Amino acid sequence: MIQRxxxxxxxxxxxxxxxxxxxxxxxxxxxxxxxxDAFFVAFRLPNHFRAIFAEGAFNAAxxxxxxxxxxxxxxERAGIFADRIFTLLLASQIVLLALALxxxxxxxDLLAPGFTRDPGRFALAVDLTRITFxxxxxxxxxxxxxxxxxxxxxxxxxxxxxxxxxxxxMATLGLAAFFPSAGHAAAWGVVISGVLQVMLVGGDAWRxxxxxxxxxxxxxxDVRRFFRALGPATxxxxxxxxxxxxxxxxxxxxxxxxxxxxxxxxRLNQLPIGVIGIAAGTVVLPEMARRIAAGDESGAAHAQNxxxxFTLLLAxxxxxxxxxxxxxxxxxLFARGAxxxxxxxxxxxxxxxxxxxxxxxxxxxxxVATFFARGDTATPVKAALVAAAVNIGFKFLLMGPLAQVGxxxxxxxxAWINLGLVLWFSARSxxxxxxxxxxxxxxxxxxxxxxxxxxxxxxxxxxxxxxSQWHHLHNLAAVALLALIGGACYVALLLALFGPRWFxxxxxxP
Length: 510
Description:
Elements: H1 2-30, H2 34-54, H3 57-73, H4 75-102, H5 104-111, H6 119-132, H7 134-151, H8 156-174, H9 182-207, H10 221-251, H11 258-293, H12 297-324, H13 326-334, H14 341-355, H15 358-372, H16 378-402, H17 404-429, H18 436-466, H19 474-497, H20 500-504
Helix pairs in contact: 1-8, 1-11, 2-6, 2-7, 2-9, 2-10, 2-11, 3-4, 3-7, 3-10, 3-11, 4-7, 5-6, 6-9, 7-9, 8-9, 10-16, 10-17, 11-12, 11-14, 11-15, 11-17, 12-14, 12-15, 12-18, 13-14, 13-19, 14-17, 15-17, 16-17, 18-19
C-alpha cells in the first residue's frame, strides 16, 4: 500500500511542481489585481461544483461500491453498474452545464457580489466563467474513469491527469498575446486541459478493459445503494464547499488582491494536502473497502493506521516550514513581474493561517475512509456540516480585523473541528482501532516538529543575510539552503527517535 501511496504522491507531486510553474507564470502575467481576481473566480466556480459532485461526493460513494460489487459479484456485474452510473452522471452534467451557461451572471452575483461595485471586473468574470465552466463536464467524466481505475489498483493515470491542466494553461498563457486578455488565455487553457484529461484517463480505462459505455439506466439494487451513499456524501461536500464559497463572497468585498492572496496561499498549502493527504486517502479507501468486503477487519485497520502514520511522516516538515518561513516561501516562488513584495507578504500571512489547519487537512481523507469503506457516507456528513458552520461563523468574525488572513484562519479552525468530530464518531461506532505503534508515534512526531520549527526559526535570519547580495536569486537560494538544513535535521531526528527498523515495518502486512 505504501508503494501505491508513493506512486500517487509522486505523480501528484509532479502535478504540483508543474502547478507552481503555472502559478509563477500566472503571478508574473496577472499579478494579484482585478484581472487575476476575475480569473480566479471563474476558475473557482467549476472547481466548487467539481469538489461537490465529482472528486468529493462521487468518489466517496462510487469507489467502495465498485470495489465491493467487483469483489462479491464479479467483473461483469461491476461493468454494468459502472455503465449505468456513467450514463446518469453524463446526463446530469450536461443539464448543469446548460443551466450554468444560461445563468452565469446570476452565479457571479452569488459567488462574488462585491464585483458589482466594479462593472469591468464583473463583466470579465462572467466572460471567463462561460469559458471555464465546461471543464466541469470533462473533469467529472475523468473522476468516474479514475474511480474505476483506483478500485482496480491502477492509480497512475488519474494521479497524472491534473498535470495536463498545468501544461495546458502554461501553453495558452505563452500565447496570451493572441487572446483578448491574459485571463482569457488562462481560461481557455483550463477547458482544453479537460479534453486532454478525458483522453488520458479514458485511454487507460480502455486499456484495462473497464471503459464504461452508455447504457439505459435501471435502478437496480446496486444503483439504489450507490445513490443512498451519494446523497449524504453530496450534502457533506456541499457543506465544505459552502465554506469555500463564503471565502470568495467575503473576499470580493475586501481590497483588490484579497482573492489572489487566498489563491496563492492555498496553492502552496495544497501541496502537502494533495501529495500526501489525498494520495493516502485515494489509496487507503479501495484497500479498506476490499479488505472489509472480504471480512478482513484487522487488515483494514492496519491499512488505515499505516496511512495516518505515513501521512504524518511527510506532513510534519511542511507544517514547520509554512508556520515559520511563509513570507520567504512566497517571495521565492512568486515575487516577480506583476507580483510584488507586498503581495508576497499578504499571501505569506495567509499561508501561515492556513498552515494552522494543515494536520487535519492531510489526515481527514484517511480518517473518513473507515466510514466510506463500509458504505457509510452519512456519519462524516455530520462532522463536515458542523465544521462548515463553525468555519463560516468565524469568517464573519475575523474578516474585519484580519481581512483574508481571518478567512484562512477560520478555515483552519473548521478543519480541526471536522477531524475531531470524525475521530469521535469513529471511536463511538467502534471503527477506531489505533494500534500501539501509532500511539507511540504521535508524541514523537510532535517533538520532532517543534524542534524542526525552532531550527528553521533560528537559521532564517543568518541564511537570508548570507545570500543578501544575490539579488534576484536571494530568496530562492535562502529557501534551498533552509530546505537542506531542515531536511538533514528532520532525518536525524527521525532516526534518533524512531530508529531504522520503524521504516522497515511500513512494508509489513498483517
